[in-house]
Amino acid sequence: MDLQITRRQQSFIQAEADEVLFGGAAGGGKSYGQLVDAWLYALKYPESKQLALRRTFPDLERSLILTSLGLFSREVAAYNSSQHRWYFVNGSIIEFGYCDNEKDVHRYQGAEYDVIRFDELTHFSEYMYVYLLSRLRGSKPYPRQIKSSTNPGGVGHYWVKARFIDIGAEGVEHKVRDENTGEVSTRVFIPSKLDDNPFLLQGDPGYAKRLNLLPEKERKALREGNWDIFEGQYFEMFRREVHCFEPFAIPASWRRYVAFDYGQDMFAAYFAAIDERENIWVYKEVYKDKLLASEAAELLQSRIDEGEKISAFFAPPDLWNKHSDTGRSTADIFAAKGMGLTRANNDRVQGWYDLAEWLRVYDDEQGAKTAKLKIGSNCLNLLRTLPALQRSERNPNDCAKDPHELTHAPDALRYLVAGRPWAEKPRQESRFAAGARSFMRLGR
Ligand SMILES: Nc1ncnc2c1ncn2[C@@H]1O[C@H](COP(=O)(O)OP(=O)(O)O)[C@@H](O)[C@H]1O
Ligand SMILES: [Mg+2]
Fold first, then answer.
1. Ligand 1: centre distance to CA 30 (Å)
2. Which domain CATH number covers 177?
3. Domain match, 191 and 246 both
4. Are residues 151 and 252 in the same domain?
5. Please, which residues have CB less than 5 A from ligand 2, an ion?
6. Which of 199, 207, 223 should be mutated for ligand 1, with most atoms under 8 A from CB?
7. Ligand nearest to the CA of 202
8. DSSP for 229-273, written as a single string
9. Is residue 330 within 8 Å of residue 292, measured between CB atoms?
10. Helices and strands in the chain: count of H runs, count of E runs
11. Distance, CA 35 to ligand 2 centroid (Å)?
12. What distance in Å separates the CA atoms of residue 15 and residue 202, rounded to the nearest whole number?
């Protein structure tokens, strides 16, 4: 095979970190670099197994598979198109795969790979990535790595940025402790620029010009490979350093609430406390899938500490619908377990606006950035999904309902603010307003 590679592709191929990201401008040669790297690895390590992924099968077919058919020499490998696998004469395998949705990752449950490659990593969710990390294993003493390539933007922009770009200088290996598992791994980010790829620049001189014509945000992402944009993020103001707090003992005097979203697919509940200045502190998370309403109620109850007084349980109005078989509603089931629910307004757009107000970043008296609503670092799913939530394409004032997996925790938080929680001792409240509030409270 007559191969030439760019300097950046060489850095990607030689990178030894446990997790490598080749990311940046479109056309920098990232996908091509993946294939060359896969090819070299397969030849170097006999009987090695690699998995190369795109989010959907059509994407996979159009990109990696098509390019590999033009690139790989038939002298040492043969392609099986029904299995999407390259079989090498030395016993190595390169398998192409995809995962349309979260559950698709379980297809790879029994599998083992020496190297897993994600192309267009920002199209994947962090869950998919972390799940597939666990499929990295084998009996041979080969280097095991996850190697990814991507443009900025897309549903996974935020977590990919946090995982690879926000950890420190580019091109340098960083030792990072995973917040969820506590495992330490090495990660490196190798930036990719269009100008690094002479093959494309010479073959298609108009390409750079066409990218320059894109609207600013897209141009920044695709032409410059800039990560400091997030096309489509709803809560653009979200900053982990502002909105996230380390858990502490919540003072007994702060009023506490629970807000939750319940569906058969996910039960997402949040405990929140309000301090005297009417800041909301979200301090406990319950996040579990596939629960019956009675199981969800029991789980929630088990997470209420002894003596922990909850002023209200906010839930969306549809939980008052009667189930046709039993004639009881989910609200009835919670009530039977001693948790009388309070109906939270489910006006989506108004609710997101309210939430955005709570999350607005401003300077406190000392000039430090702060916000009225903060989330405990133990609320992993909320911290993961809230910043990843996308704007709806049909109604830019609303959040997208897709990927569905991102919506559960933010919906619960929306019910919390829609429930209009109030503090024990609101500051500077007129007697009239206080009276109106307690009147409303009686009316609930
Ligand atoms: N080393 C190389 N040799 C020949 N062509 C290359 C090389 N690297 C990239 N290319 C070509 O440049 C174009 C862009 O590369 P690609 O890998 O698709 O970029 P990216 O994935 O970063 O958007 C493709 O047509 C690809 O075939
Ligand atoms: Mg590509």
1. 7
2. 3.40.50.300
3. no
4. no
5. 31
6. 199
7. 1
8. --TTBS-TT--HHHHEE---PPPTTSEEEEEEEE-SS-EEEEEEE
9. no
10. 16, 18
11. 10
12. 27
Spell out the residues 6+ positions from residue 53 whose beta carbon is closer than 8 angstroms to its own: 60, 96, 97, 98, 99, 116, 117, 118, 119, 124, 132
192 Cβ inside 6 Å of ligand 1: yes
Q: Are 269 and 286 in contact (CB under 8 A)?
A: yes
Rounded CA-CA distance 121/387 in Å is 17
Tokens representing residue 364 in the block:
């406190």
Nearest ligand 1 atom, CA 24: 22
Query: How far is CA 270 from each of CA 251, 261, 266, 346, 369, rounded to the nearest angstrom?
Result: 17, 9, 13, 17, 24
**The domain containing residue 48 runs over which residues?**
7-215
Which residue, of 177, 200, 215, is where some domain finishes?
Answer: 215
Ligand 1 centre from 32 Cα, in Å? Answer: 5
CA of 186 to the centre of ligand 2 (A): 24
CA of residue 209 to ligand 2 center, whole Å: 18
- Weakly modelled stretches of the chain, pLDDT under 70: 179-180, 229-231, 425-444
Can you give the CATH number for the domain in which 340 is found? 3.30.420.280
Q: Over the stretch 228-242, which tens digit does the pLDDT of each residue have?
A: 766 678 898 887 778
Q: Best of 197, 210, 211, 224 to mutate for ligand 1, by most ligand atoms within 8 A of CB?
A: 197
What would the pLDDT profile of 263-319 be if each residue is shown by its tens digit?
Answer: 989 999 999 999 999 999 999 999 999 999 999 999 999 999 999 999 999 999 999
Whether 134 contacts 60, CB under 8 Å: no
CB of 6 closer than 6 angstroms to any ligand 1 atom: yes
| pTM, full prediction | 0.62
Cα separation of 59 and 68, whole Å?
Answer: 14
Q: Name the phi and psi angles at 169, rounded to 5.
A: -60, 145
